Amino acid sequence: MFISDCLDVNQAGHLTIGGCDTVELAKAYGTPLYVMDEDCIRRALRDYKKSMDENYENGGMVAYASKACCFQELYRIVMQEGCGADVVSGGELYTAMKAGFPAQRLYFHGNNKSGQELRMALEYGVGRIVVDNLTELSLLSDIAREMGKTAAIFLRVTPGIDAHTHSFIRTGQIDSKFGLTLENGDALQAVRRALETPGVELRGLHCHIGSQIFDEEPFIHAAETMLDFMAQIRDETGTTLTELNLGGGFGIRYTDQDHPRSCGEYMRLVSGALHRRAEALRMPVPYLVIEPGRSVVAPAGITLYTVGAVKEIPGVRTYVSVDGGMPDNPRYALYQAPYTAVAANKASLPADRLYTISGRCCESGDLIQENTPLQECGPGDILAVLATGAYNYSMSSNYNRLPRPAVVMVRGGEARIAVRAETYEDLNRNDL
Ligand code: LLP
Q1: Looking at ligand 1, which residue's alpha carbon is closest to its atom 1?
Q2: What predicted TM-score, i.e. pTM, was given to this entire model?
């Protein structure tokens, strides 16, 4: 009935997630509230892993991209499922380490890592540092030598694939702040440099072509392009790199207009393409890393709000104000991102009204969705916005000095707090 299989409606006509009544959750924990279904997250991770094991002969790693949603309990779940993680800052790295995440299974990304962050990564023993550019390569080399260590690295390559136009326009993607351009020879030059740089050991290559991609073609094209480049490296330098990280980007269902493939389906297609290409190039099939973020956590999450004022402007539109908004979900304000919303306490009624859901910030653009179908709403109703598990909590802010909501994990009808709600005291902790 809903866009995610962790959601249902109970006899009271209330929306449920992970077997918990959302109206009861709102009552117990207050709103706004992030709720995440633990089993849904575990299922996605298992689906990726299973597909990797079944379709990929040379083994591989599913590394959850923790920028999608980052807190300690999530790292514990990812760790228990035997997966790795992609971290992109000292803050994410620190959170992972606090959760006891095995450092060897971490991939450290970012286009402008600081010396302090690189030092931190080397101290912890992060598995692979994904070097973005030559400035970082020499900074890392200096730090590693000073610490008497060798950093195992990947180089981030921009393979010139514009996933969102479906046309693989090359010039479009040359214009990226990330990585080393393949097309103009920068990437090959960086590989040569890395191979002769002391303090680093080049293990493989990385690319990431975008996010919320439905079509499998760009993923396949990227995998083949990267393998071709690995063959070129072998031919021109004599070095055979053995690891390939293809990033994330797999699309999910935000509305019933979206029709993504299942998690494992992408893997099956990409694995098939890689095996065929490796054989044609007489290359060993590389150890494969993928970094799904959104598709692991987005479908597992919802955000609950309480409706306040409803304002009808005849002939224009009707606003439903909720007690959160762009600080807990900036994605509509930033990208006009589509979402599905449900009146959680009236979930079995028809969604036959059109409402614009507005947040509580002093800003006209503080909207969650415009003219979206909903059950008739009034003050005190509980509104659920679906598929908010990715890039909501992790992109939240304290705009208007609003405290961040709690994150509650649900599983088998039980709920527990994974991240406490911020208090006004928290907001003032660093004020002098
Ligand atoms: N690996 C790398 C190197 C990435 O940069 C990203 C996402 C991922 C993996 C995970 O991609 P995913 O599977 O989640 O699509 N804030 C935007 C999304 C930005 C994604 C940035 N990189 C949003 O809210 O839509």
Answers
A1: 247
A2: 0.97
